[in-house]
Automatic annotation (TrEMBL):
Belongs to the cytochrome P450 family. This is Cytochrome P450. GO terms for molecular function: heme binding; iron ion binding; monooxygenase activity; oxidoreductase activity, acting on paired donors, with incorporation or reduction of molecular oxygen. It comes from the Bacteria. Keywords: Heme, Iron, Metal-binding, Monooxygenase, Oxidoreductase. The lineage of its organism: Bacteria, Pseudomonadati, Myxococcota, Myxococcia, Myxococcales. InterPro entries: Cyt_P450, Cyt_P450_B, Cyt_P450_CS, Cyt_P450_sf.
Length: 404
């Protein structure tokens, strides 16, 4: 395996265009070994077939805390243990706990129930764009792409509107960690977010409603389905995962369309194209750049490389979505691309529970924006845009646009 110096995965230069580096890894070191910010041996998998294997492999554990074993926990940095209270959710668990936790919420995210939110998402998108139209410009991230998914998931959970910005700030702080100093700085957010969730749960216990939080509280009180820490962690996951990826889909998808005006015009002329268009934007922009971590419970062979027991493994979804072995002309944006078996929602038992909701929000938000403003354009050069920090997600921090 050739020696390839790892880049600063969270730097502005890398985040603006990580795809050439991933293309090199796919050719020269598809199962790439480097040292992570926690100084642990880490592997980055980049080819489509290998990423698919990692996402589904039973010997790759998601339970970094519970299944780590005494040896691993002993050498785990004490700072990371502070995050354990918000890690008792289905994303960070293996079966049977994963199966039990997922079963408690999957009924709230079926395509049929999500479709019932269509009119609410449409009304919210229209209202936000009405406000933007009066100004003639906006930051598409903070004034649109963020507000749509934050509002919807918060309403589903029964979070008071006055708290939306608060939990979004904590969420952004927690997913932006790129080094040990960032982890240290995020500790107050973990503490405040956890305290806020416990207070919210206590308030709801005394006044149950018909929202998802009330349903989870009742499941906890029924016994042996959800304990108190799992309840806090589940709400944390739903609030964070329920909006972070969709923010990047809407903002990154809009940027991709503006950089490909022929595809933008195609979408305006063919509104029925919106469903495959969103799938292509999910592939091309890859809102989740890298999967959350897994670790090997035993020696695992991926792409002909044996990864030793106890090592961290990350799957580069953005790389898999541009793999020339899977997609024809992978670096081209083609809104009518078929087939399009992208991995942006993952694969296997951890396939994104909120995929139907993200698709609905993305379709409505993007089509409404495109149809409403035929003169939509970037208000500053694309190369001057700043990108969100953090290894896992990819999207612009701000996206100033002109509407007329």
């Amino acid at each position: 395996m050739p020696t390839i110096t790892p880049p600063d995965f969270s730097s502005q230069h890398f985040k603006a265009n990580p795809f050439p580096f991933y293309a090199r890894l796919r050719q020269e070191a598809p199962v790439y070994h480097f040292t992570s910010l926690t100084k642990e041996p880490t592997w980055l998998v980049t080819r489509y077939e290998d990423v698919s294997q990692v996402l589904k492999h039973a010997s790759l554990s998601k339970d970094v805390f519970g299944a780590a074993g005494a040896e691993r926990r002993a050498r785990m940095p004490w700072l990371l243990k502070i995050f354990e209270p918000v890690s008792q959710n289905m994303l960070s668990k293996d079966p049977p706990d994963h199966t039990r936790l997922r079963s408690l919420v999957h009924k709230a995210f079926t395509p049929r129930l999500i479709e019932q939110l269509r009119s609410r998402v449409q009304a919210l998108s229209d209202r936000l764009l009405d406000e933007a139209a009066r100004k003639g410009s906006m930051d598409l991230v903070s004034e649109y792409a963020l507000i749509v998914p934050v509002t919807i998931i918060a309403e589903m959970l029964g979070v008071p509107p006055s708290d939306y910005r608060k939990f979004q700030h904590w969420s952004n702080r927690l997913i932006s960690n790129t080094n040990l100093w960032d982890v240290i700085l995020s500790v107050p957010s973990v503490v405040m977010f956890t305290r806020y969730l416990r207070q919210l749960i206590a308030q709801r216990r005394s006044s149950l409603g018909d929202d998802l939080l009330s349903a989870l509280i009742q499941a906890e009180e029924a016994g042996d389905k959800l304990n108190a820490d799992e309840l806090v962690s589940m709400i944390f996951l739903l609030l964070v995962a329920g909006h972070e990826t969709t923010v990047n889909l809407i903002s990154g998808g809009t940027l991709a369309l503006l950089q490909h005006p022929e595809q933008l015009e195609r979408l305006r002329k063919e509104p029925g194209l919106i469903e495959p268009a969103v799938e292509e934007l999910l592939r091309y922009a890859s809102p989740v750049e890298v999967s959350t971590e897994r670790f090997t419970k035993e020696d695992v062979t991926v792409g002909g490389v044996t990864i030793p027991r106890g090592h961290l493994v990350f799957a580069a979804i953005a790389s898999a979505n541009r793999d020339e072995r899977q997609f024809k002309n992978p670096d081209a944006l083609d809104l009518g691309r078929e087939p399009n078996r992208h991995l942006s929602f993952g694969m296997g038992i951890h396939y994104c529970l909120g995929a139907p909701l993200a698709r609905l929000e993305g379709q409505i938000a993007l089509q409404t924006l495109v149809n409403r403003f035929p003169n939509l354009r970037l208000a500053r050069p694309a190369e001057s845009l700043k990108w969100r920090t953090g290894v896992l997600m990819r999207g612009p921090q701000r996206l100033p646009v002109s509407l007329s």
